[in-house]
Every structure is written in structure tokens, then in C-alpha cells.
Amino acid sequence: MKFIVKNNACLTNIINIADSCINLGYWPNYFKILITIVIPKPNKTSYDQLKVFCPIVLLNTLGKLIEKVVTKRLQFMVACNEFIHPSQLGSLKFKSTSDAGIALTHIIWSGWAKGKSTSSLAFNISQFFPSLNHKLLTFILEKADLDPKVTTFFANYLVKRRTNYL
After folding, report:
1. Which of 7, 10, 101, 137 is deepest in the core (most CB within 10 A)?
2. 160: which DSSP letter?
């Protein structure tokens, strides 16, 4: 994989495929098929409960590379349009855990300066995306003033996805 990405001709072809997908507003069905394998967690005394197994979802390698290209472009577009709230730190280029800690510390100290008690609630939203309303996401992308081709691409990207189990 590292060899392919370092090869300019291969990288150019991957970028061309990504461009074509966006321009056509189409994500090939071949890339929408995911493979899930279930691996038992090691050193368990019994395997009669679901929590002792770990499902792993495998994506098509080329599709994953193209998704990375599209993701970086989308992030750049929404950042340029100032569509991302300044306090959004997760999964953004040039943002880190330190940035999140500094932002949280600032919020806490600001509250204390005003004589207020401050509390924090943290939760993991990694499982939020699969349950996201597709029409809502399309609406949000339109509101972000993205090119209609991009919105059409994502609308197509989200539909008819399926998982095969091994």
C-alpha cells in the first residue's frame, strides 16, 4: 500500500477516480460492499456471550484510499467556507487532543471567573454516523454551500450499502 501511494502514477490514477466519482455524483456499488468478520477476544473463559467477540469491518482497499482523498477535500472545502464551528476538534487536520484540552480548560476557567460551577460531559459518537438521517446530511451539505456534485455524490455514497459476513 505504501508503495502504491508513493508512486505518482498510481496516486494520480486514484485521484482521477475520486474526481470522476464526485463529478458523476456516483459511488460505485463495488465499494459499498463491506465484509465483517467476527474475531473472538483472546483469553476468555467462555465464549457464550456476544461481548467476548469483536466484529471487524473490512473495506475495499482502493475504495478506502479514494474515501481518504474525498474526505481530505471535503474537510478543506468546509473549513475554507468556515462551516465548521471553531470548537469542533475531532478528526480535523491540524487539531489534536492538546487543542481539545486547552479549549476545555479555557471554558472551565471562564466559568470560574464568572463565579459559576463548571462540569463536563464526554461521550463517544463514533456510532452516530451509521444512524444519521441521510436527508438531513444532504441538507447540511447543501447549506454548507458545497458544489451540487459533492452533495449528489454523498447522497449516492450513503445508499445501498451492505455487509457480508464471513
Report:
1. 137
2. S
